[in-house]
């Protein structure tokens, strides 16, 4: 048992080292081809008021909206926790979870709820997976919305014309996916689908990513980069998805490269890299730093039972 535990710890450490190394290599390659002084100058000239507004919205999204959504999802599974504890689960896990690729750090929440609240591992694991599925569906809907609004997005228009989408069809697909997840973890189908039937949970899921899209828009404006709203709707969700690939720490590096690729026509490499760095700071590093205030309580909840 002890040997198996050491093996798991070794693998976890190896994944962290791998992520940090790839992140460093990506930034090394980026800065070899970009004028660092121009990037510093671009960031220093950013509109402070727009930057602060973006930071405030990030705090509201990452702290309050995400905590409310977790509280609602747990309540749907029959477990009631206060907002402060939901805050500990969401924001307290940020410093721990962000060093693990592909959102695997999210499963520290499973450990916390199992130890501190006695919630079965299968239920909280299902909750984490459903949360990620909600995130993906929200991003997908924004991409489709951007495709509808853009006259230039012929591929999206062709898809929408030839593939009618109705609510019942989407709900049926969501139910099918949830049923498979539920069967895998031997949880009742009704417990899983409750999450997708809750209008408040769906609302918060879309609101969270609406905030993220608007934050990117504000940061671009603060740097003097004009990116049409349609392009933000279509490509920022793709940036979020690509930056979730299991290679770097919290998607850092991949996120910046993705912005350089998708928005090359709207700014210089230095300006877009500045946007990527501010985006990573406001949307990911800032919540992580705030999580340091709660990580002690979060970790105690994992190590010690109440």
Describe it for me?
This protein is an all-alpha fold and 306 residues long. It has one domain (2-303). The chain is 77% helix and 0% strand. It is built from 15 helices and no strands. It has helices at residues 2-32, 36-44, 48-76, 83-91, 94-97, 108-117, 121-149, 154-162, 167-184, 189-197, 199-222, 229-242, 254-262, 269-291, 295-303. The chain is globular and about 50 Å long. Mean pLDDT is 79; it is low at 1-5 and 152-165.
Would you spell out the secondary-structure blueprint of this structure?
Elements: H1 2-32, H2 36-44, H3 48-76, H4 83-91, H5 94-97, H6 108-117, H7 121-149, H8 154-162, H9 167-184, H10 189-197, H11 199-222, H12 229-242, H13 254-262, H14 269-291, H15 295-303
Helix pairs in contact: 2-14, 3-4, 3-11, 3-14, 6-7, 6-15, 7-11, 7-12, 9-10, 11-12, 11-14, 12-13, 13-14
Q: Give a short account of the largest sheet.
A: none
The tally of helices reads 15
What's the structural domain tally?
1
Shape: globular
Helix content range: over 70%
Q: Mean pLDDT score, rounded?
A: 79
Low-confidence stretches: 1-5, 152-165
Strand content: under 5%
**Computed CA radius of gyration, to the nearest angstrom:** 20 Å
Structural class by helix and strand composition: mainly alpha
Order of helices and strands: HHHHHHHHHHHHHHH
Spatial separation of the terminal alpha carbons: 25 Å
Number of strands: 0
In brief:
This protein is mainly alpha-helical.
Quickly list its features.
306 residues; mainly alpha
């Amino acid at each position: 048992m002890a040997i198996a535990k050491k093996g798991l710890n070794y693998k976890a450490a190896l994944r962290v080292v791998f992520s940090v190394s790839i992140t460093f290599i990506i930034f090394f390659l980026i800065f070899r081809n970009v004028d660092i002084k121009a990037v510093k100058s671009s960031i220093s000239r950013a509109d402070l008021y727009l930057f602060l507004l973006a930071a405030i919205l990030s705090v509201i999204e990452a702290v309050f909206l995400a905590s409310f959504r977790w509280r609602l999802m747990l309540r749907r599974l029959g477990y009631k926790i206060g907002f402060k504890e939901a805050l500990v689960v969401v924001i307290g896990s940020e410093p721990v979870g962000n060093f693990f690729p592909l959102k695997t750090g999210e499963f520290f929440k499973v450990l916390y709820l199992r130890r501190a609240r006695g919630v079965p591992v299968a239920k909280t694991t299902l909750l984490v997976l459903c949360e990620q599925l909600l995130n993906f569906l929200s991003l997908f809907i924004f991409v489709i919305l951007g495709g509808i609004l853009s006259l230039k997005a012929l591929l999206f228009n062709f898809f929408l014309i030839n593939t009618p989408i109705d609510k019942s069809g989407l709900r049926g697909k969501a139910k099918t996916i949830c049923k498979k997840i539920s069967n895998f973890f031997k949880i009742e189908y009704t417990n899983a689908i409750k999450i997708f039937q809750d209008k408040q949970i769906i609302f918060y899921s879309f609101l969270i990513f609406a905030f993220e899209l608007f934050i990117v828009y504000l940061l671009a404006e603060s740097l003097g980069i004009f990116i049409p709203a349609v392009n933000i709707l279509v490509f920022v969700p793709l940036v979020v998805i690509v930056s979730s690939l299991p290679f770097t720490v919290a998607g850092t590096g991949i996120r910046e490269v993705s912005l350089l690729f998708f928005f090359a026509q709207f700014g210089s490499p230095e300006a877009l890299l500045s946007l990527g760095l501010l985006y990573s700071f406001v949307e990911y590093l800032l919540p992580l730093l705030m999580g340091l205030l709660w990580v002690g309580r979060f970790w105690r909840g994992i190590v010690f039972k109440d």
